[in-house]
Amino acid sequence: SGIGDKANEASASTQQGLSETKKSLTEMGDETKKPASTMTESFEKVRGALELIGVSVGLYELKKLLHEAAQQAMEQEKAMSLLSLTVKNSGVNFEQYKGTIESVIQTTSEYAKVQNDEVARVLQGLILRTGSVGKSLEHLNLVFDFARIAGMDAGTAAFFFSKGLEGNIEMLGRVFPPIKKLIASLGEHATQTEKSAGFIKLMYDVASGAARAMGPYEKSVREVSVAWSELLETLGNSLMDATTNVKNFLGVSDKLV
Q1: What is the rounded CA–CA span in Å between residue 39 and residue 223?
Q2: Is 1 helix (H, G, I), strand (E, B) or coil?
Q3: Residues with Cβ within 8 Å of residue 27, at least 6 apart in sequence
Q4: Residues 233, 107, 201, CA angle at the centre, nearest 5°?
Q5: Residue 228's Cα: distance from chain center in Å?
Q6: From the CB of residue 105, how many other CB atoms can be counted at a distance below 10 Å?
Q7: Which residue has the higher pLDDT, 46 or 112?
């Protein structure tokens, strides 16, 4: 009973619809590889799939949607490409640990109710600033916890979090007041290692779990938002395999810009 239960029911229903639509749209891959004469038929297939979740669109709106889907897929590909390069530059064989990295990204995405490409960008930022793939993966969830409790976006939180890992905690006091008490308790002669350890302990004590401590309505909205983005990404991946004439019609390119 109550608003929360209704929101959860609505979220579950919508997500089921999104899931069914996503499955239908993955079948579009072969359709988009056909000559331009079957383009209308392909679009009708997508329009029919969207109607499963109550979305009715004309050709113009559908074209815009497909263009958005292509951009969504390219953003995900771009995020993973940049992450791969950053991991390699840190001295780690990305291909060897690709499965682990993708698994952590997916876990954090589900934990914080955010899209995979956002998690990949945050992870990349952490690795760039810390130089450690292991530490960045280990504390990835905690960065999103810190972002929520400190009231900042995850990218900014990753910047400050990396400073904390380095033991440079003085600059964090103005964005996260509990740090001031930590600095006072450690004393002026504390080493960088002691400051780093103190920062991590404080984060786990006061921030751990914050990213998932959201009300039922916010949780439902986030879940549906992520599901919709994943649906667009699935469709976009199909479009990336499409023939040139389909891409030209949609106004998309293969370039990661």
Answers
A1: 32
A2: coil
A3: 45
A4: 140
A5: 12
A6: 22
A7: 112
CB-CB contact of 149 with 203 (8 Å): no
CA 76 – CA 197 distance, rounded (Å): 34
pLDDT in tens, 2-57: 555 655 665 666 666 655 655 555 555 445 445 444 455 556 666 666 666 556 65
- pLDDT per residue over 202-219, tens digit each? 999 888 888 777 766 676
DSSP calls for 165-217: HHT--GGGTTTSTHHHHHHHHH-TT--HHHHHHHHHHHHHHHTTTGGG---HH
What are the CA-CA distances from residue 8 to residues 24, 50, 51, 64, 139 (Å)? 24, 22, 22, 30, 29
In one-letter notation, the amino acid at residue 217 is Y
Q: Cα-Cα-Cα-Cα dihedral of 235, 236, 238, 241, to 10°?
A: 170
Residues 197/164, Cβ–Cβ less than 8 Å: no
Tell me which H or E stretch contains 20: helix 2-26
**Alpha carbon distance 185, 202 (integer Å):** 12
Cα(254)–Cα(25) distance, integer angstroms: 20
* Sole residue written with tokens 């960045």: 136
Dist CA 222 CA 156 (whole Å) = 20
Query: Tokens for 57?
Result: 């669109």
Residue 181 to residue 161: CA distance in whole angstroms: 17
- What pTM was computed for the model? 0.69
Tens digit of pLDDT for each residue in 145-185? 999 999 899 999 999 999 999 999 998 988 899 999 999 99
